[in-house]
Amino acid sequence: MTRPNILILPYMPTLSHTSRPLEIAKLLRADGCNVLFAGFNTNKSKFSFIEKEGFKCLALFEPDPDTLFTNIRNGKMKFVSALTLDQIVKADINLFKKVAPDLILSDGRFSAMISTQIADIPHVAVVNASSTEYRSIPYIPFFEKIFPLWMREHKNFRQFCDKMNLKIEMAVFDNAMNHFKRLSKKYNLKLPVTATNCLAGKDLTLLADIPEYFPVKNQPDNYHYIGPITWKRSVNTPKPRWWPLPETDKPKIYLTMGTTGENNLFSLIYNYLKKSDFITIITTGSQNDQFKTIPGRIYVEDYIDGEAVLKKSDLVICHGGNGTIYQAIGKVTPIIGIPTIPDQDFNMRRVEALGVGIRIPIKTILKKPDILMDKIQTILTNKDYFKKNLYKLQTSLKKYTGADIAADLIQSYLS
């Protein structure tokens, strides 16, 4: 029996979209698959990140991350140009001809559902439930702003408004970002691709969530909850010289802004916390080399085992990324989220709704940095409340094994 060739297409500038398929790749390789990565050819840190795990990584055109995230932060629904989308699709197809994969696994590559249909190659995608057409919670809850009291007090009214809200926001987004519809017609695709479903899989969609955190409605048979997938450091990766942390009664704070954070915000929080009486552990995601370790007060690394740090932390300050949120739930650590893009704001609204953390709008903290201390004290004072809610979600989280379920589903599909 020949070993299947699996080509993985992450959106490499973002750590979560790289680390999730990387964890799946380790298991697929152990099961006898040939696994190859391809992605952003100027992002050397992510190439190294993948190659250290023993995988080859080919250069592949991707949209410029600075332009993409600037568009997203500015609320532009046309987050990528028609020309760029055409280039990405053509880059995919040219790579498929060279590599001849048996299956494509994507995470954050919004051209994959188009290019895999054109090339007639099986396609599996890892995606968050919030980025699918089957999400049951509105992305932009505009009815909540119009009818706040009725939405809170009348369940049936809320359900009706949420349903209408979802229909409207998806229709507006798909029509504004109509490049996908145009390519669907151009290539006569059997499964039409839109801005709303472009991150899903053509054949199999793996939801890296738990339903209690992000529910969906009318879930198709080829959509599967697998639970979150968090990066596990290689056993050969050395621990920081300062680990383990010194024993102290001072509150410990974990600060991580992923790989989509804004440097001015990161610098503001760093300068604020270094004057505090807390112990702060910071991961920069290789975004900034200006932050320095201050022994006994602040410890800085590019990357670290987040779960080990969260286990020792009283709270985490983050950008509202799914990976960090799920790690915090797993270790019952309350969350302060400062979202910088709409996806993260969406995540943090769920965090607040479930009573496991607090959201601080970025405009608020930039104008009034002292609000951070207020929210830290709120969590430290009400830790029992947050932990009670975190334990409920942790119980659900334990039912899912993320990468293991994903690898099993992919192997079953291949066979």
TrEMBL record:
Keywords: Transferase
UniProt keyword Transferase present: yes
Segments forming domain Erythromycin biosynthesis protein CIII-like C-terminal: 281-389
Transmembrane segment boundaries: none
Molecular function per GO: hexosyltransferase activity; UDP-glycosyltransferase activity
Pfam families (alphabetical): EryCIII-like_C (PF06722)
Keyword check for Transferase: yes
Database matches in InterPro entries: EryCIII-like_C, UDP_glucos_trans
Protein name: Glycosyl transferase, UDP-glucuronosyltransferase
Species for this entry: Desulfobacter postgatei 2ac9
Organism placement in taxonomy: Bacteria, Pseudomonadati, Thermodesulfobacteriota, Desulfobacteria, Desulfobacterales
